[in-house]
Write a structure and sequence with these properties.
The protein has 2 domains: 259 residues, no CATH class; 347 residues, TIM Barrel (Alpha-Beta Barrel). Helix 6 packs across helix 7 and helix 11 packs parallel to helix 12. Strands 1, 18, 21, 22, 23, 24, 25, 26, 27, 28, 29 and 30 form a 12-stranded antiparallel beta sheet that branches. Strands 9-8-7-6-3-13-12 form a 7-stranded parallel beta sheet. Strands 4-5-14 form a 3-stranded mixed beta sheet. A hairpin with a 2-residue loop joins strand 19 and strand 20. The longest helix is centred in the N-terminal third of the chain and has 16 residues. It is built from 13 helices and 30 strands. The two termini are 23 Å apart. The protein is globular, with a radius of gyration of 25 Å.
């Protein structure tokens, strides 16, 4: 990361931690009160070098919602059909609308790809916790739960709501809830009212937004008067061209380019099945005539075509939709979507020659932002196909960046913490350290559950104080993943792994630990640092003289991560999955420190001037990602 503008710390979050006043994303009834300062300090970059820019606050009257699905329960009897994999291995079976081999049977659910967290159940609370932490870091205001088929999936629904409450009660600003109904909404809303709205238990999770009553998506003419009095009702706007257009409709997908504005709302979606059957993006039944080409993940108005892996991984389609929505500046942007993952293989009828998959199909023709297990597209040896097809976390990081562009208030410039002060506090967005054991998936809990991190500095050293939930364990002999602290510095010319030039605690020895520096192929020891562990607290002191970037510096901007028990520390995606990582995944926290006064007339960083003039600094307090890949480094593993 080369520009100071990317890492400029705003006055906002410094004030948040020192008792000063600060802006809030929405009013008090819509937020928690413990996590905003830490969230404002999150930063990062995605695989394509797209940076999340610093902001000084967020507008109170703008809201981002995310379409969310809760119906995964392995109703397909344990089978996990995956179209991306079947297209490589058994394409004839996949396309056969009458397949009787059991390889790709009709009337079963098919995933378009393998999720990073596996083919999970919606009642897997471990996964739900990960989702909530990701949404809290991103600044998502509400989840619109897909209940459009007159089923409310009560076990999964209450699992989600109870977990949101748990985080909210711990002081984390969590998304609120909107129920999205469509078929037989009178019956669906009646069920919902009895289960979640007739009690005060979940009242703090209802999303009001700009309204005086909790919002619900339903059809007014089907509702009882008591529900019309209780809710603010907006109708579901279905994406087909033949459906009635509602001025106040709530679209989860818009087939028009650019998208239509529904009063105060514009939808953005990852891809659009404008041919009505998403699988027709790959293969069309000759007996059918789709009305239009499907718009895959890489399709744009400027380049109206599909099939470009780079455009797919970048998310060019949804980026065009975000750019348009931001230019129109509605009160609400509604995003489709998160964890949709699967659709039905329609049973064949007489005369069919090609199977149909309507709502999603493969990696390109699907609408999911949640991370895939496979990280990128990788061609086979002869270049005729792919051995991997995925997008990793690029769509999540893109979501975070665009939320900040939409709601953000520009930062005026850097604000540095003075040496010798109490520094800056950061909290983990996780609230429980629990193992996973659901649906055949198991994951151990972290050995050390990190709760808070304090960073301060003097003219001679940077001090990390890390507090854990329980007494910190002793490091295992030879293990490299005990209480790691990764550090990178703005403007660094040093070699980097995932933008970090340094790591601590891979080789602790009693009261001494090693600062290790990345040399292009691995981390190597470069100097000793003082280490103190007492009960649940760890203190590490890093001499400034060991940091090449700080030689003769007057100030610095540092991004860092603290992680424990990550099982595959060389795999940056495993920081979303195993152990404890603060912040989660490929996110980093940012700290700016003043070392000494600059001489009179010190030049202003040119990168900041260019960024400010171009409007780059207009958004992005919650950053996402810490990885910039060059073509030369893609596919290479970190050693050591």
């Amino acid at each position: 990361m080369k520009r100071l503008a990317f890492f400029v710390l705003s006055i906002f979050f410094i004030a948040a931690m020192t008792g000063g006043s600060r802006l809030r994303a929405v009013d008090e009834k819509q937020t928690g009160n413990g996590s905003e300062g830490s969230v404002m300090a999150i930063t990062g970059t995605d695989d394509f070098g797209r940076k999340i820019d610093i902001i000084s606050g967020t507008r109170k009257d703008r809201y981002v919602g995310l379409f969310y699905f809760i119906w995964f329960d392995f109703a397909q009897k344990g089978y996990r059909f995956d179209t991306t994999k079947l297209l490589r291995t058994k394409p004839d079976r996949l396309w056969d609308p009458f397949d009787k081999t059991g390889i790709a049977p009709p009337s079963c659910m098919y995933y378009f790809n393998e999720p990073l967290y596996g083919y999970y159940k919606s009642t897997d609370k471990w996964v739900v916790r990960k989702h909530i932490e990701l949404f809290a870091a991103a600044g998502v205001d509400f989840l619109a739960i897909d209940l459009s088929n007159d089923v409310i999936y009560e076990p999964a629904l209450t699992t989600l709501l109870d977990t949101l409450l748990e985080y909210q009660e711990a002081g984390i600003s969590v998304p609120k809830i909107v129920c999205y109904t469509n078929l037989n909404t009178g019956h669906t809303v009646d069920l919902l009212y009895k289960v979640i709205y007739s009690t005060d238990k979940y009242r703090s999770l209802w999303f009001y937004g700009p309204y005086e009553k909790p919002l619900i998506v339903a059809h007014e003419e089907e509702l009882k008067q008591e529900y019309l009095d209780f809710f603010y009702v907006r109708p579901a706007q279905w994406p087909g061209f033949e459906y009635e257009l509602y001025e106040d409709g709530f679209p989860f997908c818009d087939l028009n380019r650019p998208q239509r504005t529904h009063q105060n709302l514009i939808g953005v979606s990852v891809a659009q099945h404008t041919g009505y059957v998403f699988s027709y993006g790959m293969k069309i039944d000759p007996n059918d005539t789709p009305r239009d080409i499907n718009h895959g993940r890489g399709y744009t108005s400027a380049k109206p075509e599909n099939g470009d892996p780079q455009a797919i991984m970048r998310g060019d389609n949804i980026q065009e939709q975000w750019d348009y929505a931001i230019s129109q500046d509605p009160e609400i942007v509604f995003v489709t979507g998160w964890n949709e993952w699967a659709t039905n293989k329609w049973p064949g009828k007489e005369g069919d020659t090609v199977a149909r998959f309507v709502d999603s199909f493969n990696t390109e023709f699907s609408r999911d932002i949640e991370m895939t297990k496979e990280r990128r597209y990788v061609t086979n040896d002869d270049g005729t196909g792919y051995v991997q097809e995925g997008y990793g976390d690029n769509f999540y990081l893109q979501l975070v960046r665009n939320i900040r562009r939409y709601k953000g208030i520009a930062a005026d410039g850097p604000s540095y913490i003075d040496p010798g002060t109490d520094g800056q506090n950061y909290i983990s967005l996780a609230v429980v350290n629990e193992p996973r054991d659901c649906g055949g998936y198991k994951q151990a809990a972290a050995a050390n559950f990190i709760r808070t991190v304090n960073v301060s500095h003097t003219p001679d050293e940077i001090v990390f104080r890390v507090d854990c939930a329980d007494e910190i364990t002793s490091p295992d002999d030879g293990a490299l993943n005990w209480m790691n602290i990764f550090m990178g510095f703005e403007g660094s010319k040093e070699k980097q792994w995932q933008t970090y030039s340094y790591v601590l605690n891979r080789h602790p020895e009693g009261n001494v630990t090693w600062l290790e520096k990345y040399d292009g192929s691995g981390f190597v020891k470069s100097g000793e640092c003082a280490l103190e562990v007492s009960g649940s607290e760890m203190i590490v002191r890093v001499p400034l003289e060991l940091i090449a970037e700080l030689n003769d510096a007057y100030d610095f901007v540092m991004y860092f991560k603290v992680a424990d028990s990550v099982e595959d520390p060389d795999n940056e995606m495993d920081y979303y999955v195993s152990g404890a990582s603060v912040p989660l995944g490929r996110l980093s926290y940012t700290y700016a420190g003043k070392i000494k006064d600059a001489p009179t007339g010190k030049k202003v960083d040119a990168a900041w001037i260019v960024a400010a003039a171009s409007g780059v600094v207009a958004a992005g307090a919650v950053a996402a990602g810490c990885v910039v890949f060059s073509k030369e480094r893609q596919g290479k593993e970190r050693k050591g």
